[in-house]
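Weekly sync notes, structure subgroup
Attendees: PM, AL, DS (notes)

Item 1: joint prediction request from the bench team. They want all two components modeled as one assembly rather than separately. Inputs as received:
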Amino acid sequence: MSLSEREFWTVIHGLVLGTLFLLAFAGGIAGLWSLRPALVTPAGVHERLRRLNVGVWTMAAVAWATVITGTYIVYPWYREAAESSPRSQLLANSDTALWHTFGMEWKEHVAWMAPILATAVAFIVTYYGERLIHQERMRRLAMALFTSAFLAAAVAGLFGAFINKAAPIR
Amino acid sequence: MGHSESSSSQAAPLEASRASEGDKPNGPPLAALMAAAVGTFVLGAITTLAEVSEGLKDWLVFREPVGPLSGKTTLATGVWLVAWVVLGLAWRGKELDTRKVLITSVVLIVLGVIGTYPTFFEQFAPE
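Output from the run, pasted for the record:
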């Protein structure tokens, strides 16, 4: 029942923050989807917006925390020059090299789009506030951006999980 | 039946509140969208350019343990923030053509994603 420092940060980066991200996305997208006059009572709008604001800003904050811990704490261990590093192990075998040359190479870059896009959504939700319920185009735009942020994070998360399975950081 | 009556009676006050509050200009949210698109585009562009130029790739090593990724992400984040401030000030209080900004943003985001796609940027790597 013990984790090394490296395993601990890998869990924080991929599992803890990843789970929070998924929860925040689910809440945020459901909130945006149902934010329509026909579905929300006047009394419910205020309460719904409060939860939506928490959801979208949480997703943005978690996305930033995920990419920063991933890039500046976990990634240096992954790419160490030592033969025992995950990157070296993957590249040493032609059967696993693609996990690095395609999976990691895409993951490490595309992941940074998630917090940028999620922050834009959070701003839009906060800017319009209760008026967002009447801004159909902006609501749809926010949903599209929010989903794009999620997809970018999903690519990164899935590759991260598989790569850590093929060559764990220890 | 009861639900339907309830919904229509509750929707009416929402319409009234809209009229009394007035709509906010769409400049600031579109500035946020466009800045995000610029940030993602810059990330993709730098990723591809770093494959073209070994000198640029070396320069992008802002932190040795992280390698060029540190420079790529720092620059993209910096450009995103600067673009947001500049566009936010320029478009403050303005009503813009949503369609034009939206199309431009989608093009920039798609180009940004393509720029980060390994199969694409590896085409520019030296043999």
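Discussion: Chain A touches chain B at residues 37-38, 40-42, 45, 67, 71-72, 75-76, 79, 101-102, 105-106, 108-110, 112-113, 116-117, 119-120, 123-124, 127-128, 130-131, 133-135, 137-138, 141, 145, 148, 152 (CB under 8 Å).
Action: AL to compare against the crosslinking data before next sync.
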